[in-house]
Task: structure prediction
Amino acid sequence: MRTSEWFTKGAALLRPGLEPRAVAADAAVAERVPRTTRERLQATLRRHQEALSPRVLRRTLSELQAIVDPRVSEVEGARRAHALADWYAKATTEERRDCWLLMSEQFAADPSKVKAARERYEAALGTPEEAHAEIALRRAVQSPRTRLLQRFAGYPGGMRFLVDLRAELLPQLKSDRRLLALDAELESLFSTWFDVAFLELRTISWDSPASLIEKLIKYEAVHEIRSWGDAKNRLDSDRRCYAFFHASLDGEPLIFVEVALTGEVSDSITPLLDESAEPADLSKATTAIFYSISNTQAGLRGVSFGDSLIKRVAETLKAEFPRLKTFATLSPIPGLRQWMQKNAPASLLQALDQPLSLGPKSPERAQLLALAARYLGKETDKGKPCDPVARFHLGNGARVERLNWAADPSPKGIKQSYGLMVNYLYDPKRLDKHRAMLSQGQIPISSAIEALYG
Result:
């Protein structure tokens, strides 16, 4: 007999005057409202949408608690974590969610200890005991969940397990806020474990292992690599590709950037992706164009690598090619069309159905460029640029430099931004100034961008 049927019949026996329809409604509400793991651990039966029975849930909690048992060594704790990870690998998505819920709800800091430590700290402010009280408060607010995740990271392959766990967890956060604590803990630990001080910058070339080039093809997120010939072109003599690696994810790039060495700032992606084009003369290269930057690990979302990557790459390139004077991007504008749909006149949107057919003197073309310049140079959301790529580069200290017409004529380019692309300029002498401007709500732009919407 299903739980809902048992609930309905049992309630009818206890309250014989109650209408069956009302009893069924109560049962339906009980089925829809998720129980906390605390309630489930004290129960006897599971509800139909719960993956693990109360008995198995209690056993799983005991196994998680055994991992952080203070009486066992780091080695034994890591071994126990590895054993649970083996079970996790075979578990269903629903069973994994129950494991996440246990980690999130059952390993929080003790609120009474936190309250007491905070009160002692506040009372000690300005006294010789302030430092000791602060240490006690820090220890009180550190949750057992932190120790649990550290034990998982302690066995070979444990970091890979945690990164993959968070990648699977992230899409569930909107529908289940109970998982937010676990996600926040993971992001905080990853920000420390994957700090730039622990990362190694490596060059990826055509001489790199095929397995690494395959990962480049797999993770490329800006301009799809269509073939091995395409990959070879991007690793040619006038190109450079750099990636950050971490010892715990050996052989797996965390983020990589593709660079073209040219004699001027590029205004179109087409020649850069042309497999038949001759390599540029490196003796005449004065400009480094960052034309693709891709994060590879979904589980590391929120951990910032880009600023450090671009800075390290620029320094590496400058050391190899002293003639380089300009560092710029050729970037997509992924949020433009969506913003235009909300802010541009309907008549203009209709005229932009085939943007590449618009001539140089077309008023619609001028309107599109003006609106795109406004989108990049003026529009903000909570004080930050609306466009995600703009947020990344401007947050790193770049400036919106130039809009390029028909720079990406691919279907993806047309769909995202009517074929427009933008150059962001990285001027090493002005990065801090541009960051300061952005923190004050002012987007750094060139006079050419300002003239478009001025």
Notes: Confidence is low (pLDDT under 50) at residues 1-18. The chain has 21 helices and nine strands. The first strand starts at residue 199 and ends at 203. The chain has three domains: 34-108+143-193, 111-140, 199-453.
